[in-house]
Each structure stands twice: as structure tokens, then as C-alpha cells.
Amino acid sequence: MMDIQEILRTLPHRYPIILVDRVIEVEPRRRIVALKNVSINEPVFAGHFPGYPVMPGVLILEALAQAAAILSIVTLGDQRPKDLIYYFVGIDKARFKRPVEPGDQLMLEVDFARELRGIAFFKAKATVQGQVACEADLMCAYRSPSKAPVGSLSDPGSGASA
Questions:
Q1: Is 159 among the domain residues?
Q2: pLDDT per position in the chain (162 positions), as tens?
Q3: Where in the sequence is the domain holding 95, given as residue range(s)?
Q4: Residue 151 lies in a domain
Q5: Which of 62, 87, 129, 152 has its CA 20 to 30 A from that of 104?
Q6: What's the CA gap between 32 and 42, in Å, rounded?
Q7: CA-to-CA separations, 74 to 79, 89, 98, 156, in angstroms, rounded
Q8: CATH number of the domain that residue 49 is part of
């Protein structure tokens, strides 16, 4: 488990774009389950939509990508360079099945699928009270600004480069 303080030490994101509030479970190289508490106080709801606030799908996908980043960073462990940046590089098969509204608790479930040439592939699903809100295949790449190679998710000590 990770609380918000540990998440903030792991991810570079800050308010208003930090979209993971708690990690419930994480299995390196396999899976993460995390939570996003959706609050009416979030700035996006002032305009999306007045009178009927709905969390934008792009933010649901970003929350899933942040959970994937946490999974990847935890997997890299001590092999992680201090200046590592994790980039969201692709989305396939995104489907939205129900609206997400203020007061909902979004359960973020991300499974590591594979890695190829420094790009990690994930199967992701966001649910509210057991109902699927969003499903997607995500692609993420981690890079050090110095462009030095970093370890692979499938073998953190491999030094594989992208």
C-alpha cells in the first residue's frame, strides 16, 4: 500500500493533475490497484459540465496512466534514475462505459502486459462500485532527460534502452 505522501515521492505530478490518491496493492512486474476519489472541488467540474458535472474521459485515462507509472517505478526500484520521467505515449481500444461523477471512488486496475524496446504495454480498467467506467490498452515509456538507458520492466537490471 502507498498513501498520498509516498505517491507524491514517486510521481512528479502535483495538484491539480495528481490523479491517484492511494495505492491499495502493487505487485512489481504484474499489477497495481489504486484509488482516485472524485471530488466536486476539482477545478475541471466548474466547466465540465455546469449543472451536470462529469469527469472527462481524458482524465480517467490519465489516472490510469499515473497508476501504470507507479507500477513501473516500483518495478524499477533501486534501478530507477533520480531524474526518470515517465511518458504516456499511446492509447488503444479506449472505451467509456459509464459517467464518473463527483462523489464516486474510481478504482484503477492496471496489469503489465509486456515491454518492447523501452515501451511498456498495459491493460487498464477503471471501475466505480464494480461497474466498468473505462477500459483501455496503454503504452508508456520512461526516459531520463539525459537520455541515458534505464532498466527494463521485465528485467530491471538489464540496462535496456529505448
A1: no
A2: 999 999 999 999 999 999 999 999 999 999 999 999 999 999 999 999 999 999 999 999 999 999 999 999 999 888 877 777 889 999 999 999 999 999 999 999 999 999 998 899 999 999 999 999 999 999 999 887 765 445 556 554 443 333
A3: 4-143
A4: no
A5: 87
A6: 24
A7: 10, 19, 30, 10
A8: 3.10.129.10
- Find the catalytic residue in 31, 48, 98, 125: 48
Which residue in 117, 62, 104 sits closest to 87, CA to CA? 62
Residue 13 among the catalytic residues: no
Q: How many domains does the chain have?
A: 1
Asked if the structure places residue 153 within a domain, the reply is no
H-type alpha helices, the chain: 4-10, 57-76
**pTM, rounded to two decimals:** 0.89
Q: How far is it, in rounded angstroms, from Cα 62 to Cα 34?
A: 13
